[in-house]
Design brief:
Layout (H helix, E strand, L loop, with lengths): L1 H19 L5 H21 L8 H18 L12 H10 L1 H10 L15
Length: about 120
């Protein structure tokens, strides 16, 4: 009885991961989502207090950016597609706030250099 229930749960979770668009096994996707939440939390903690978002805003932003990075992962260039899915999603969660800030302002210049915002 328990074996049938576990197989059904496994099939449901695999179908959900496939419906979202992942081709990776669902345990890797779930671990990647946990890493993106952890990365978002670390990014929130190290941000200056005046620039912090709320907890639920930070976590939902980290999940969304982590999901997008996980979906982008198999198509990435420069060898990023060979990195583990969890690493890519965790880094995306960590960088979710700066990515969202750049997307909101439309300023995709690097923070250093002649055309960047903070360069010399």
């Amino acid at each position: 009885m328990w074996d049938a229930k576990l197989r059904l749960l496994d099939a449901v979770l695999a179908a959900i991961a496939l419906t979202v668009g992942f081709i990776a096994p669902w345990p890797e996707v779930l671990a990647g989502l946990c890493f993106s939440l952890a990365g978002g939390f670390v990014g929130m903690v190290v941000a200056p207090p005046i620039e912090r978002l709320g907890f639920f805003n930070t976590m939902s932003l980290a999940l969304v950016i982590g999901l997008l990075a996980g979906l982008w992962h198999p198509h990435a260039a420069f060898g990023i597609d060979e990195w583990p899915l969890q690493l890519v999603m965790g880094l995306a969660g960590l960088l979710s706030r700066p990515v969202a800030k750049k997307a909101a302002t439309g300023d995709w210049a690097l923070p250093f250099g002649k055309s960047g915002g903070g360069g010399a």
